[in-house]
Amino acid sequence: MKISGAVRYVGVNDHEKTIFEGLWPLPFGVSYNSYLVVGDKVALVDTVESEFGDEFIRNIRDEIGDRKVDYLIVNHMEPDHSSSMKLVRSNFPDIRIVTNAKAVPMIAGYYGITDNIMTVRDGESLDLGGCTLTFHMTPMVHWPETMMTWFNEEGTLFSGDAFGTFGAVDGDIRDSSGARLSGWLDSPEDTFSEFRNEMTRYYSNIVGKYGVPVQNAMKKLSGLPVRRICSTHGPVWETRIQEVVSLYDRLSRYEGERGVCIVYASMYGNTAEAARALEAELIRRGVPYAIHDAARENLSYAYRDAFRFDTLAVGSPTYNNEIFPPVASFMNGIVSRGLKNRKFAAFGSYTWMGGSVRQLNEKAQNLGFELLSDGLAFAQGYAPGKCDMSSLADAVLKD
Ligand code: FEO
């Protein structure tokens, strides 16, 4: 697929995989994006999952016929982008791998490749003849070896995982030409609205721990006159650059929009009833919210909305004197992502001795969250009047 004068899309859509990284559901599939930059010499930017290798090589041949690929630019070594490297070398035996020093041992370790590798440093360039590629080190967006490649003449940033989304892409890969999230049934005017949820879920689950490195990378690249962002997942951004950059900026600063993310789990329905009562209060008061059952849903959706909204309301029964395991797992993920700048309220049932609300509050305080109340612990069942969620809603909405 022709993207511009010199850039060709040669990536693939994966509609088969149901769980990404062995953890995260893919209701709309996922794309592994790879690009050719065609000058006097030809460079391939990243590869695709190895199971799509045949399709990948066909895509390359469709674009350049019998020409050879001179360089393979390795921006990122996670296998969803690197695992066709050996196949590429077997099809283009003279190809020179261009990457940074941190990727070299990973290439040797994963694929046993140690020769014909050219290492580049931050700011160095490669001249393809009419196309100049400059390499910018962006460590921990998403692994230590990650770098981005800037195509000077066309204002194109090959950004690796950054600005990527879950979801295979139907039609043209460019947002300017109507890229569609595969399987999405609505037909909104605004393409970005289709991808926003999956971009936020991708960011919060895959990159969310690395807010500071993302901010560093964004500052470092802020002077570039970007006309096009070619990520390794999801659409090529041409018309929605401003929106995707500002979404990444907000998420990586851990800045939530006004609203409440309720996450709960329940043994016998009592904490669930309290969660639904809080939900009813938020609806009645017109407050944006999301609600997630940590025992029944994949946690990636709860993490997405914890990153999205500025307030977190977490409900857990006391179980073995501790937080109920599904909720503890959610909170561990919040700790591991280093979520910041949240307001927090806890609630939950107990039978003979509480503890979950106190322990949730302690975790929230350790994260620097603002406690909106002491929380609402209730014994032997939730009942309106006995313990009223409107008081917790008052606390949650006090601003
Ligand atoms: Fe899509 Fe970090 O790999």
Secondary-structure topology with pairs:
Blueprint (H helix, E strand, L loop, with lengths): L6 E3 L2 E3 L4 E2 L3 E2 L4 E3 L2 E4 L3 E4 L7 H12 L6 E3 L5 H4 L2 H7 L4 E4 L4 H8 L5 E3 L5 E3 L4 E6 L9 E5 L4 E5 L8 E2 L9 E2 L9 H17 L3 H11 L6 E4 L4 E2 L3 H12 L4 E8 L5 H15 L4 E5 L5 H10 E7 L2 E2 L2 E2 L1 H13 L5 E8 L5 H11 L3 E2 L4 E4 L9 H8 L3
Parallel strand pairs: 7-8, 8-9, 9-10, 14-17, 19-20, 19-21, 21-24, 24-25, 24-26
Antiparallel strand pairs: 1-6, 2-5, 3-4, 6-7, 11-12, 12-13, 13-14, 15-16, 17-18, 22-23
Helix pairs in contact: 5-7, 5-9, 6-7, 8-12
This protein binds MU-OXO-diiron (FEO).
Question: In CATH's first tier, which class of the largest domain applies?
Answer: Alpha Beta
For the CA atoms, what is the radius of gyration? Answer: 24 Å
What is the CATH architecture descriptor of the largest domain? 4-Layer Sandwich
**N-to-C span:** 50 Å
For the secondary structure, the number of strands is: 26
Structural class by helix and strand composition:
alpha/beta
Main beta sheet, described? 6 strands, mixed
Total DSSP helices: 12
How much of the polypeptide forms β-strand, as a percent range?
15-25%
Helix coverage percent of residues?
A: 25-40%
Strand order of the largest sheet: 1-6-7-8-9-10
Poorly predicted regions: none
Q: What attributes does this structure have?
A:
25% strand; elongated; Rossmann fold; 26 strands; single chain; 6-stranded mixed sheet; 12 helices; binds MU-OXO-diiron; 399 residues; Metallo-beta-lactamase, Chain A
